[in-house]
Amino acid sequence: MSSSLKNHQPRIAWAITGSGHYIEECLEFLLTLKNVDIYLSQAGEEVLKMYGVNLKQVREKHPVYRDKAASSPPVGHFYKGYYHTFIMAPTTSNTIAKCVLGIADSLVTNLYSQAGKCRVPSIVYPCDIAPEMETTAPGGKVMVYPRKIDLEATEKIRSFEYTQVVESVDELIDIVKQRINSLS
């Protein structure tokens, strides 16, 4: 193990995908936490810009990694015990579908795959959780009607080992706090 990893306090790996589903509230909570590395999919980076998020300010609080390398080098941190928890919040239906099928072809899907292989608990906040739901868009709240296939994928990921699915920002906050407290 490298000397930089020997004396570290295990961290949270938090991935943001291209979903705007309560992204501002998720980010607001994320920024209150300590010891977090943020991973952005390409779409996640685009969506944050659409919501007016200043990545420079986010980087002042936490390291931010972007989806730029084909092999997703940061996933190796899971094998070294660098992360105690992986969080995907919010998570697009596309990312959920890939995870359910075992596809690990991007930084975020590879992080989820490797977390599971290393028995690191994942907390997932899908954007598609009910047949009718209110969500956030850059202009405000809107109604969406997730497709049956998206709801089926959300239901399927609930059964995955080391994965806990949350259905609201409040539940996300509670579960993350419980996870952090359980490690103390």
> Order of strands across the biggest sheet?
3-2-1-4-5-8
Distance between the termini: 23 Å
The quaternary state of the protein chains shown equals single chain
- Total helices: the number is 8
Write the layout of secondary structure elements.
Elements: H1 3-6, E1 11-16, H2 23-30, E2 36-40, H3 42-50, H4 55-61, E3 64-66, E4 83-91, H5 93-101, H6 107-117, E5 122-126, E6 133-137, E7 140-144, H7 148-157, E8 163-165, H8 169-183
Helix pairs in contact: 5-7
Protein described:
There is one protein chain. The protein is of the alpha/beta class. It has one domain (3-183): Rossmann fold (3-Layer(aba) Sandwich), CATH 3.40.50. The chain contains 8 helices and 8 strands. It has helices spanning 3-6, 23-30, 42-50, 55-61, 93-101, 107-117, 148-157, 169-183; strands at residues 11-16, 36-40, 64-66, 83-91, 122-126, 133-137, 140-144, 163-165. The strands form 2 sheets. It has a 6-stranded parallel sheet with strand order 3-2-1-4-5-8, sandwiched between helices. Mean pLDDT is 91; it is low at 1-5.
Structure keywords:
184 residues; alpha/beta; Rossmann fold; 6-stranded parallel sheet; 22% strand
